[in-house]
Design goal:
CATH class of the largest domain: Alpha Beta
Mean pLDDT: 85
Helix content: 10-25%
CATH topology of the largest domain: Rossmann fold
Shape: globular
Low-confidence stretches: none
Number of domains: 2
Oligomer: single chain
Strand order of the largest sheet: 2-1-3-4
Strand content: 15-25%
Structural class: alpha+beta
Radius of gyration: 18 Å
Largest sheet: 4 strands, antiparallel
Number of helices: 3
Bound molecules: adenosine-5'-triphosphate, magnesium ion
Length: 138
C-alpha cells in the first residue's frame, strides 16, 4: 500500500479531535478529507506530518512506519503539506522561495519529484525574480 492510516486517535482532554481514523491511498490517487468546522481535518494532517503525535494508531508510507516521527524526517521521506495560511520568506524572490522547498527535500534523487522551472516562459509579466513580499499570494 502506498499510504495508509490505521485507527489514528488524538484527543485533547475531552475533545475527541481524531477518533479512530483509518484510510488508504494508492499511488496516483487523489483523495479529499472533508468535514465541517472542528471535524478534525487539520488535526489529522498534523498527525500525518508529525506536527503532533497521536495517542494511538499508525501512519504508514511506502511500507515504513512514520508514526510520531519528526516533520523533518517525514518531509525527507516525501510527504509534503501546504497550509491554509501561506507563509513565505518575504525578502527572497519567488524563485528562491520555490527552491527552498525543493532543496529542503534532501532525499535521494530517485525519490524526488520532478521539478522544472522556466522563469522566462512563466508569463509575459515574469515575477519570479521579484521579492516574494511584492507578489500576490493566493
Ligand atoms: N491544540 C489543540 N488543543 C485543544 N483542542 C484542539 C487543538 N487542536 C484542535 N483542537 C480541537 O479539536 C477539534 C478538531 O479541530 P481541527 O482544527 O482539527 O478541525 P478542522 O476539521 O480542521 O476544522 P476547520 O474546518 O475549522 O479547519 C476542535 O474541537 C478543536 O477545537
Ligand atoms: Mg482545519
Amino acid at each position: 500500500m502506498f499510504f495508509e492510516v490505521k485507527n489514528l486517535r488524538k484527543w485533547f482532554g475531552g475533545v475527541k479531535a481524531v477518533d479512530g481514523v483509518s484510510l488508504s491511498v494508492n499511488q496516483g490517487e487523489i483523495c479529499s478529507v472533508i468535514g465541517p468546522n472542528g471535524a478534525g481535518k487539520t488535526t489529522l494532517f498534523n498527525l500525518i506530518t508529525g506536527f503532533i503525535r497521536p495517542d494511538s494508531g499508525e501512519v504508514i508510507f511506502l511500507d515504513e512506519d512514520v508514526t510520531g516521527k519528526s516533520p523533518k524526517l517525514i518531509t525527507e521521506r516525501g510527504i509534503a503539506r501546504s497550509f491554509q495560511i501561506v507563509n513565505i520568506f518575504p525578502r527572497l524572490t519567488v524563485y528562491e522561495n520555490i527552491m527552498v522547498a525543493v532543496l529542503a527535500q534532501q532525499i535521494p534523487e530517485t525519490r524526488r519529484p520532478a521539478v522544472s522551472w522556466e522563469p522566462e516562459t512563466a508569463g509575459s509579466r515574469n515575477r519570479s525574480s521579484h521579492a516574494a513580499q511584492a507578489s500576490i499570494v493566493g
